[in-house]
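> Could you send the histidine kinase prediction when you get a chance?

Sure thing. Input:
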Amino acid sequence: MNKTRFPKASIGAYLIAIALAIALPILAFVALLLVQLENNERDVLKRDTVQDAQALARTIDRQLQDMATTLRLLSSSPELERNDIVTFFDRTETVLRTDSLFVLLLDKDGQMRLNTRWPLSKPLGKTGNLAALQSALNSGRIEASDVFVGSIVRRWVYNVTLPLDHSPAGAALAMTQDADELAKLVTTDALAPGWSAAVIDSSGHIVAGSGPANLSPGDPFNKDILPKLIASSGVYQDEKILPHSLLGYAQIPGWSWKAVVWGPVASAQASLMSTWRFLIYGGVTLLLIALIAVYALARQVRTTIQDIADMADRMGRGEIVSPIETSVIEANQMAMALSNASFDRSETEDRLHFVMHELVHRTKNLLALAQAMTRQLARQTDSVDTFQRAVADRLEGLARSIEVLTSEQWSGVSLRRVIDIHLATFLQGPQQLDIKGRDFLLKPEAVQNLGLILHELATNSVKYGALSAPEGKITIEWTAADGEIGQMLRFTWTESGGPTVKTPTITGFGTTVTKAHAAAAFSGSVEIDFRPTGLLWVLNALRSTMERERERT
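Output:
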């Protein structure tokens, strides 16, 4: 007794069960995602925060690099080598062409020899950040200073200082800019609402900033956070110091400054959380709609299956059924398949009767050919052993024809293939055979008859003709010509390179096959010329007895 794993139920019940089996795990998975969402999104937020800090660092780095490049260009001025301050001042103003960047020429003690912010005639004092000058002179490379109050303008500025090697004009060139100008590059447009950004110098003071934190140049950054920002880039999070917030930082490559961005986590995740809540509400609503739709579809599918089952039942009783039309495409395809199958079964039964008749016919032909062959050989052989060898040899050639016909389902075989199959065992090398002619498909009867003829010709050639010598050669050629009855085909077998040929005095079964049988089988005539240089055998055959009609070219 067969046992089912599932209870018996209607198609509607199973469709609803399938819908629930699909939907409920999805909803459970969504719930699990919600549990993991905060942690996963925080990881994403950390990565994005670091990338925002790195983007700000690259922006500030480009500004500092542009200033450094300008200083290097100016340091190579010939006016500095000649200590021509006036000309250098004019040249520098021409190069800068801006109201936000200014160049200073400084001595070792910090005394300014020129400042393009002021006329050359104005008395100048010392730089307001002597420590930055000494650091650049000691290191011998370009450095950015900490933010400081300019000694003349009394505003927060910063310098980029380039030491001059052995210049008579001064010890260093510096480019200065107001910190407020740099703040224009520090924007929070790409950040979430409530987030701030800032650039911090090496002493932990704000160089420039923007955002709701309202940090101004010179303000100290949180001293509890700065010691923790030790990597080249990263994130900082501490619920005690920055409650519900996240900070990302990045060291500006090649400089002593850092770029930082920070703000509340909730504002960065608010839109995504809202999206997920909408997904849950929408998922539940769609599930209910789906269940209602499944119930309606189940009724339609049940009717369709019943109709198909009725068709299958009628087909099982042997009826030819017509296809039904339903609203289900696959059901229509099944109905069409059942209808076609009922017609095909009827046609198959007719075809089986035809095949059986054809098989009987072909078997009779083969038996008749074998009987004629054995009778002929029996009259021309003088011993049982000779008779057995002759019969076996001819049957082997006939078997080759039947084998190749069977592989092609008795639909015909190409002429070249028939030649290759029957002569392959007789040739000592491929150079002994030359085939000329446009290939075509032979009829099944022609395959058997021509195969028998080729086998006899090859057998005689191995015994007495060209194939008995290594240098012997067989040339097979066929050409088309118009005859009296219809289109004729001239098929020639030419031997050369063998021993001298003599006309035989006694004819046997081979002559019968190659002459009388060949002429009768192909409704034509045969010419045989025993030339001393080699046998010439010519078959003038009616082409229609050889070539399949549908394959004729």
